[in-house]
Write a structure and sequence with these properties.
This protein is of the alpha+beta class and about 220 residues long. The protein has a single domain, classed as Roll (Mannose-Binding Protein A, Chain A), CATH 3.10.100. Helix content is about 20%, strand content about 15%. The chain has 3 helices and 6 strands. It has a 3-stranded antiparallel sheet with strand order 1-2-6, covered by helices on one side. A 3-stranded antiparallel sheet has the order 3-4-5, with helices on one face. About 10% of the residues have low confidence.
């Protein structure tokens, strides 16, 4: 009986010891399985964008509307000809190419050159409409926007043909030049596609109805 009691006591101690180690191991495992917080995506990775961010195409975010805008329409004031998302999905951002195309082009060359432009992560660039070009100009001149003398106290914005305010900028944001850029918008609308077209001067910030044979600078854009 004495030996039997010692055997029972030994077995009890072993079982208790194993159970304690098991609980400790379980606690360690549950601690190590706690997931790390997920990393927030940048604009370039497809996250939320702000003005001046690098976009998914490697360009520059020049316009933000988180409520969304429909750009696949024929009006000259639409922000872009195409919205590169699913059907009926509004775009929220305009992304300008990181730099101007080299040289200057007439109106017939401009859309072709913009459409063939590509970056390592995007090949859906295009010539901006007049509405998109105005937003690009607003971004490029944002450091120099001043009170327009005849505007009743509102900021001078690009595209205001009636303002007598003339800007003289030493430099512009994002490498834009103080010269004229082509838009894809026709002076008399799409009903008269072979008449003059709209350009916008990034120095005076005023629109011009130019002959299509004039040579102007081009900065491609994309909407997403």
């Amino acid at each position: 009986m004495h030996k039997r009691n010692w055997a029972i006591l030994f077995a009890t101690i072993v079982l208790f010891s194993c159970g304690g180690e098991s609980n400790s191991s379980s606690d360690d495992t549950s601690t190590s399985e706690v997931p790390a917080p997920s990393k927030e995506m940048s604009c370039k990775e497809g996250g939320i964008c702000a003005l001046g961010d690098t976009g998914p195409g490697g360009g520059i975010i020049v316009y933000v509307d988180e409520s969304g805008f429909q750009s696949d329409c024929t009006s000259d004031l639409c922000l872009s000809v195409h919205c590169h998302l699913f059907d009926n999905e509004p775009c929220r951002y305009l992304e300008a190419a990181p730099e101007d195309l080299p040289g200057e082009y007439n109106f017939w060359q401009a859309p072709l050159e913009a459409a063939t432009y590509a970056t390592p992560t995007a090949d859906d660039w295009e010539l901006p409409s007049m509405g998109a070009l105005e937003e690009m100009c607003n971004y490029a001149t944002q450091l120099y926007l001043t009170w327009s003398p005849d505007s009743g106290g509102s900021l001078n914005k690009c595209g205001d043909a009636d303002s007598d305010y003339v800007n003289s900028f030493p430099s512009l944001i994002a490498g834009f030049q103080t010269t004229s850029y082509w838009s894809s918008s026709h002076l008399y609308g799409l009903e008269y596609p072979y008449y003059d077209a709209w350009s916008l001067h990034f120095g005076s910030t005023k629109p011009d109805g130019d002959g299509m044979y004039y040579h102007r600078r081009v900065r491609p854009v994309r909407a997403f």
